[in-house]
Amino acid sequence: TMNQQPGSSSQKNTDGLEKIRMASWSNEIVEQSNLYVAEEKGWFENAGIDYEFVPGAGGGEAVKNIVAGNADIAFANIEAVLLAIEKGADLKIIYNIYPENVFNLVSLKKSHITSIEDLKGKNIGVYSLSSGTYQNLQVLLHSVGMKEEDVNIIPTGVLNFAPLMNGKVAATAATDTGLYDAKQKGLGDVDVMEVKNVLNTPSDVFVVTSDVYEKKQDALVNFLQVYKDSTQYMMEHPKEVAKVAIEKAIDGKDEARNLEIIKIRNKSAENKKELGWLDLDVVKKVEKTYVELGLLKKSVQIESAVTNDLVEKLK
Amino acid sequence: MSIVIDDLRLAYDKKVPILDNINLEIQKGECISIIGKSGCGKSSLLKCVAGLTANYEGRVFIHDELIQEPHEHVSYLFQTPILLEWRSVLDNVLLPLELKRKVMKEDRNKAKQMMKLVGLQDAAYKYPHECSGGMKARVALARMLITEPDVLLLDEPFSSLDAITKGQLQKELLNISQVMKPTIILVTHDIEEAVLLSDRVVLLGGKPACISKEFWLDLDEKRDASIRFSERFVNVVAEIYESVEHL
Amino acid sequence: MSIVIDDLRLAYDKKVPILDNINLEIQKGECISIIGKSGCGKSSLLKCVAGLTANYEGRVFIHDELIQEPHEHVSYLFQTPILLEWRSVLDNVLLPLELKRKVMKEDRNKAKQMMKLVGLQDAAYKYPHECSGGMKARVALARMLITEPDVLLLDEPFSSLDAITKGQLQKELLNISQVMKPTIILVTHDIEEAVLLSDRVVLLGGKPACISKEFWLDLDEKRDASIRFSERFVNVVAEIYESVEHL
Amino acid sequence: MKKHLLYSFFLLVVLLTAWEVVVRIRSIPELILPTPSVILMDIIQLVKSGFIWPHLRVTVIEIIAGFLIGSLVGLLLGVTVSQSSLLNKVLHPYIIASQAMPKLALAPLFVLWFGYGILPKLLIIALICFFPLFESSLTGLRLVDGEKVDLFRSLKASKLQILWKLRIPVAIPYIFSGMKVAIVLSVVGAVVSEFIGASEGLGALIIVAQGSMDTPMIFSSFLLLTAIGVSCYQIMDVLEKKLFKKYTFHRRN
Amino acid sequence: MKKHLLYSFFLLVVLLTAWEVVVRIRSIPELILPTPSVILMDIIQLVKSGFIWPHLRVTVIEIIAGFLIGSLVGLLLGVTVSQSSLLNKVLHPYIIASQAMPKLALAPLFVLWFGYGILPKLLIIALICFFPLFESSLTGLRLVDGEKVDLFRSLKASKLQILWKLRIPVAIPYIFSGMKVAIVLSVVGAVVSEFIGASEGLGALIIVAQGSMDTPMIFSSFLLLTAIGVSCYQIMDVLEKKLFKKYTFHRRN
Ligand SMILES: Nc1ncnc2c1ncn2[C@@H]1O[C@H](COP(=O)(O)OP(=O)(O)OP(=O)(O)O)[C@@H](O)[C@H]1O
Ligand SMILES: Nc1ncnc2c1ncn2[C@@H]1O[C@H](COP(=O)(O)OP(=O)(O)OP(=O)(O)O)[C@@H](O)[C@H]1O
Ligand SMILES: [Mg+2]
Ligand SMILES: [Mg+2]
Questions:
Q1: Is E40 part of a structural domain of the chain?
Q2: Which among A148, C242, E165, E201 is least buried, having the fewest CB atoms inside 10 angstroms?
């Protein structure tokens, strides 16, 4: 499918629906339950869209999938987008899925880590060196002028709370849902430092290639409309959506958990303006921080890649 | 088919040749025996004629064809019976035919007939590891006879057989020799056998081995085991024995 | 060491026994020969005595010990020379000693001596695949003799050797037999050899095979090849040949 | 019940008991290491609710299809390369290279190139499992008694006939040994391929279970995968014993 | 220069050229698939700056140590199990189980149990690479000519002597075939083990490169790993040919 140019897939198929393939950073998990509701209720068809889910392993893969033409729109973290732009990809960020930074740093109460400085020389766990936990940990360290070398960063895998519990690491970088799950599994009393207090990076955004942005704008608007509506619906009917997730989400067998996760994500999706609205100032601040951190070599002119045009067209 | 060996020289390692200056002409339908001490080079010579050894000097012709690889109409009986352990005796005997064509009913019958010839009629469905030493040797013999070759190269065919069975098979070979008239080179260490079966006995000896003596035997055309007891026979055997001893 | 075989019966597959009702007593220092048709069960019998076959009925004693596994002082020469291809001829001959103790200088000398005995003095550093058929057989012979066993079980030791070499080795065996006085069971298909070398010839025959005849030979104590030409010898051979033929 | 099964089972019970006891005594949290009993309950739950079946199905299909492709390729390559020493020398570095490449890092590229369907997964599995078969068939096909080759040559057999009627029968036990390694590697391959870009299968399940810190489910998937691997191996073993007995029985000592 | 090297090199050039041309003509973005020339420049850069050395060192050490442990274990297990059919039947399911378990999913647990040092990495590598060696040595050790075993029995050889002086010499080519698969798998194992709990090594580098979307560096690490794998294999091959020639030369046909 690599040879398939993004534009070429824009023709409508037989039933008049336009194909939109959404590359996700994950497979079909509870967090994205609004999409399952939209599918179930036929909202995509109603909006003239033939929707397809493309699973992935990380935001980087999602972005690569749209660059390669395997998908039209990517559900990815903003760091991946910044890095891809730096590597020459021509991308447009069109929708702010989670304006809130969901990353945090968790330590056990008994180890008395209350400030970032307390971490000096200690082991800190991250999911992996390619995950947002790593980058957001760097942001935290940077905020107090510390460097990566001042602590001992260890990729511990996604089960990163386990080493925290058995004392192999002093603190672990995680996400809000991860923290929730760990608490359910008996994590006990913990101190949490939330990264959003330092830098409120939008956690996930919808991003497309400029080519798709030009050629498929109507379909994209329709897609975003459905997404926005379903998000709204999930905020209003979390219980119903949690039920839908049991069937559709691969990790959705526990309805009570589904509900909690949905509630957490509903909160992350809240926008001080309108659902999906991108705050350019925040994005620029993120870019600046990443340049300072050395994650980006220089500014990538992010403002030219961010647009609220489509969001403004939404009802 | 006639066989001509022209100035053959064979050395496994460059310095020490095993065979040197071998010249031999064998008429169509002739049967010659090669005798010589253990390790003198009899099997090596046979392998050259069989086209299985490439790096000898000199030339070997069969039916005027220069031998560089095995010849279609030549059958070679190895000194050890090389059987395929995963095939029954019958399937081992059928192998040469199987390599030539699809095996038919009549081929199987022929194989059974060959096995009867060598006294293995009851062993068709045994596997090699269930056969005695002599039985294996006879399977190999049946396998070589099944293609009705024009040239037989036999490397000690009967050495692992008891006197009676050996006598029977010698008779069969004489019979084949007289009826089908193949050209035969027989390597044997049994002088009586050599004299009984062949028209000429070639004595290989020396280091490197060459043909140190040839004995033309003008015994009865219609030979059978009974000539063993003729005076002429006993004398020839004694003469050859002596030559071998004084090699 | 004496050997007693008591009512032995052997069947590879349950229904058809190969050997039945075998009773044999062999004195210390005696040499007996076993002859019989190819496939009649000679090797099988020898394997029972060697302790390599477990599932026979009846009992075998060597020196009053019931044989269930190979006996320390018994050496068994297999019908085929089983050589280890990755060892030189010398190392193959040394194998039995190597399995008993650390190999010393004098062991190597002994091995070389054995190899001289079988006429392989020049082949010590050859590998099996560089040896002729008869050479391999002689390597196996040297390997079995090196331990100076009290009991020798020989399965067609000389069948792949030429007349001269065979004669020499027969002489050596006679010599060993007279000097060291081991107990010997010799399986052979050569009746003259049997008569020449042994005190008694046992004829195996029938289906299942049993001892169909025994010949006590009271030839000269100090035998050598020359007795071949004695009238008594020729008569005995003829008598045995006839018995074999009428089996 | 056969003796060895009894022992094997007994060993299993001992191991599981030890595990259970250690976890309980040291009161290791479930997140770090669940007890066998918890895992068992989880598996029962997964089976009862029917949740596991589609995942199991997908993984098993991938394993079998990937193994078939991989072993076919391995065997064919082994056979081809064994026939020509030059081809062997020229191709061998590439074949090794294809192995030494870490498939897990290759998987995302495959997904990019071939989409996220079953194709890239089968490719990954085939790529992972073909090598042992290739190596062992190559070794087996080459180590044939020289006298037997001479026999076939003297019978004017073609190279193909020598291959088919001599080398392959001789190599069968080694080919099977390679197949056994291959089938087990297929299981690994299936999981690796599902780690990236899959929304179904036991591998994907492990990933989400990790994401939701559902350690018992991680272990359940593990155990099921292990059971699949062991069963596949045993099937190969039975196949070898049943179908190809005559090529090995005279040699097993 | 030998003919096969020439061909092999020629094939390499053809493949690289094709790659370069395809990427350029279809103007595939570097993010997706860099050209060989870009990768080469990247490798040169990595080497020049010295950045790559510590990673390379760590990975090579892990590969070698893990391979040594794994092959020792594989060989010992193969030998032990070949000596007793009961032991074989009892242990075999567990050995297969250890293989079928996806190591990548096991890795985080190993890290949890054994810390972040080199130990869990060596364990993973050993666990990944011992199996082919185990299988092929088991097969090789068992398929010994029955007559030869009888010869040793008649010479009153002990089981150990039969093993040492008969079975192992016979099995050497098969053991080597297993070792070759094992050494290549060690490379894979090293990468897998470095995905979790490592901040050094080529595996960790791949992850970092993935995280920073540095596709050329992913490919550079790939290529270096592949080169390591191919070299290790060739070393094994030379070792076999040099040291153990006498066990194979009479059988190579
Ligand atoms: N392992 C075996 N399994 C089944 N049958 C066997 C086995 N070994 C031998 N036989 C059968 O037992 C019979 C006797 O075999 P044995 O090897 O003892 O004969 P032999 O007298 O030594 O013959 P030869 O003189 O040809 O060596 C034969 O019919 C043979 O087919
Ligand atoms: N492949 C080989 N490589 C090296 N030397 C060999 C090879 N084959 C045979 N020889 C040597 O060549 C000589 C002749 O061997 P050959 O097999 O021709 O003897 P032979 O006359 O058949 O003896 P026998 O009667 O014992 O079978 C022997 O000295 C042997 O060591
Ligand atoms: Mg010979
Ligand atoms: Mg016999």
A1: no
A2: C242
B near A: at least 3 beta-carbon pairs less than 8 Å apart? no
Tell me if residue A92 falls in helix, strand or coil. strand
Which range marks the domain in which residue E153 is found? 53-252
Distance CA E226, CA A27 (A): 30
pLDDT tens for C95-131 read 999 999 898 999 999 999 999 999 999 899 999 999 9
Which strand (E) or helix (H) includes residue B96? helix B89-100
The 10s digit of each residue's pLDDT in E226-238 is 999 999 998 998 9
Alpha carbons C75 and C80: distance in angstroms, whole number? 15
Q: Phi first, then psi: give them for residue E50, nearest 5 degrees.
A: 80, 0
Q: Are A31 and A261 in contact (CB under 8 A)?
A: yes
Pairing assessment for the beta strands B65-66 and C19-26 based on DSSP bridges: unpaired
d(CA E155, CA C74): 9
Q: Are B184 and B202 in contact (CB under 8 A)?
A: no
Instruction: Kindly report the CATH number that applies to the domain delimited by C3-73+151-245.
Output: 3.40.50.300
Sign of CA dihedral E172, E177, E178, E182: positive
Polymer length of chain E: 253
Residue B162 CA, closest ligand 1 atom number: 25
ipTM given for this complex: 0.86
Nearest CA residue ID for atom 26, ligand 2: C134
Angstrom CA distances, C138 to C145, C156, C168, C241, stand at: 10, 12, 12, 27
CB contact under 8 A, A159 and D29: no
- H/E stretch holding A94 reads strand A91-98
CATH number of the domain enclosing E155: 1.10.3720.10
Contact partners of E by the rule of 3+ C-beta pairs under 8 A?
A, C, D
Domain contains D159? yes
Q: What is the dihedral of CA E161, E164, E170, E175, to 10 degrees?
A: 150
User: If contacts are CB pairs under 8 Å, which of residues 61-80 in chain B contact chain D?
Assistant: 69-70, 72, 74-76, 78, 80
Chain A CB contacts of D108 under 8 Å are: 57, 61, 64
Q: Give the rounded distance of the alpha carbon of D177 from its chain centre.
A: 11
Q: Given strand C19-26, what is the order of strands in its sheet?
A: C19-26, C3-10, C57-62, C65-66
d(CA D188, CA E7): 34
Q: Is the distance from CB of A156 to CB of E196 less than 8 angstroms?
A: yes
Rounded (5°) CA angle C222-C223-C224? 125
Domain ranges in chain C are 3-73+151-245, 81-148
- DSSP conformation letters of D128-182: HHHHHHHHHHHHHHHB--HHHHHHHHHTT--HHHHIIIIIHHHHHHHHHHHHHHH
D201: left (phi over 0), alpha (psi -120 to 50) or beta: left
Asked if residue D229 belongs to a domain, the reply is yes
Test E215 with A87 for CB contact under 8 angstroms: yes
User: Judged by CB atoms within 8 Å, which residues 107-166 of D form the interface with E?
Assistant: 108-109, 112, 131-132, 135-136, 138-139, 142-146, 149
Structure pTM?
Answer: 0.88
Answer whether D129's CB lies under 8 Å from D183's CB: yes
Any alpha helices (H) in D84-145, and if so which ranges? 85-100, 103-114, 119-142
The number of folded domains in chain E is 1
C50 contacts chain E (CB < 8 A)? yes
Per-residue pLDDT of D150-190, as tens digits, reads 999 999 999 999 999 999 999 998 899 899 989 999 998 89
Q: What pLDDT sits at residue A10?
A: 45
| A9 token code pair | 């897939």
Q: Which amino acid is at E1?
A: M
User: Considering the domain boundaries, does residue D112 fall inside one?
Assistant: yes
Q: Where are the beta strands (DSSP E) in E72-213?
A: none
